[in-house]
Design a protein that fits this description.
164 residues, mainly beta, OB fold (Dihydrolipoamide Acetyltransferase, E2P), 2 domains, five-stranded antiparallel beta sheet, four-stranded antiparallel beta sheet, 12 strands, 9% helix, globular
């Protein structure tokens, strides 16, 4: 699927009022979601692409008013020596870190919560897109390293998880 087809799909979803569209084809899957709330009165679309052949999908930026295609899961590395046996969940992009899907809702996870691989643990807003970040390992949340509604950098640690 090329960028023009993705742009047309984004326009269709934003105009149709559909809350979610999922398309799966050879080696990739695209999910476009409109969040349950809108900031600033503008509709926002989330596009997630996962590729079967690659561990992390490449980020492709489209021109306005469309949006980038972003990773579905964060890149994780072995924890630093001072973090013991913990796994770091790092930001896969530059954006704004949110612990919940809206200001009125509870955080996705907190310290002491058990998570499974694939559970949504936070959202990063980048270029008016809300990208769900999923846990890559099952375990227990030991520490939240980023403040809610704060800017985060690429590869910045967000959580520490004690794997099972």
């Amino acid at each position: 699927m090329d960028i023009k087809e993705i742009q047309e799909l984004i326009k269709f979803v934003s105009k149709s009022g559909v809350s979610e569209v999922e398309l799966e084809s050879k080696g990739f899957k695209i999910t476009i979601k409109t969040p349950p709330y809108k900031r600033g009165g503008q509709p926002e679309v989330q596009v997630v692409q996962t590729t079967a052949q690659a561990a992390v999908a490449p980020q492709v930026v489209a021109s306005a008013p469309t949006a980038p295609v972003a990773e579905a899961a964060p890149a994780q590395t072995d924890a630093a020596a001072d973090n013991g046996n913990y796994e770091e969940v790092k930001s896969p992009m530059i954006g704004t870190f949110y612990r919940s899907s809206s200001p009125e809702k509870d955080p996705f996870v907190g310290v002491g919560d058990e998570v499974k691989k694939g559970d949504v643990i936070c959202i990063i807003e980048a270029m008016k897109l809300f990208n769900e970040i999923e846990a890559e390992v099952s375990g227990k949340i030991v520490k939240v390293l980023a403040d809610d509604s704060s800017p985060v950098e690429y590869d910045q640690p967000l959580f520490l998880i004690e794997p099972h």
